[in-house]
Amino acid sequence: MYCFDTDIMSAVLGRKPPLHLIRRLASLPAERQLTTAITVGELLYGSAKRNSAQLTARVRTVILSAAEVLPFDEAAAQIYGSLRADLESQGRRLAEPDLRIASIVLSRDLTLVTGNVRHFARVPELRVENWLKN
Predict the structure, then answer these.
(1) Would you call 48 helix, strand, or coil by DSSP?
(2) Residue 78 falls within a domain, yes or no?
């Protein structure tokens, strides 16, 4: 199961999404394509900031095509607390939205698909793949 980060979803929403990404997504059954409520919030924030009803509609369409939007729930919160403390104690902080996304992914034993592999590499045991690279 794959959970798509905001940059992957943004690439899909772009005017010219990378063909290799679209092909890869098309080869994956919809029930294996997940995202998080955090990513949905970031995408809707971006469309609201641009004041674009058309972009907001596209965001909603893409989100509906994902099998499931995963919430930040108690299981994710359990991981979040210790993960945040560990990363901070090592001086390896992660931005709040990314920390929540990583916690959701870890709590469900998923693979995070993101272009920010180096960024998420700070998170122990998080499986990460970059589908933006050709």
Answers:
(1) helix
(2) yes
